[in-house]
Amino acid sequence: MRHQRRTVERELARLASGAHGIVTRAELLESGITVAEISQRLASGALLREYRGVYHVGHRAPSVEARYLAAVLACGPGALLCGRAAGHLLGLLKGPAPRPEVMAPTERRIPGVITRRSRRMDAREGTIWRSVPVTTVARTLVDLAATLALDELGRRRRAPGAHARRAARAPAVRIRSCPEVVTRHQGRTRAVARGYSFADRSRNVFGMTPDAP
Q: Could you give the CA distance from residue 192 to residue 204 in angstroms, rounded to a whole number?
């Protein structure tokens, strides 16, 4: 029995190690952990429920990335962190971490999560950053352009503390990719059409790289 317990704990640690301490019920069951073993660890605090079917391994310290990843996983396959939350994760927005905002191909209602349904989610507009599925920098800039002014966005090199460290590691984006995203979303709103000029004006702020000749 003790050996079995150690085996379960090792499996939990393995699953959580590359995912900021976040695991799903489906992953646990697929790895051979039983429903009874999951229930026991929820009761003991070894697993902490974040959302339905999404857990945080109790001994792992919470983080912004863990919070965002849990929200994305709760919204199902194909979901992406988006909006202000994506901007914060990618180092485009400074200040406290916004509440999770997730775009998913189906309607989702998750307590504590801002959800958006997008029936036509383009694979070119999603990426993985710090182990979190998130909209690309170009798509995030286009989305933020609908609601934010340029001076509301954090300057990477001048942002203090944790934001500066996150921003310094944030991915660059080619300017060319922003109008491509705008073109794919011309039918949304006039505000989104500001995305290209917004991105063009902000190239020095975000470390965008010019297109190769």
A: 21
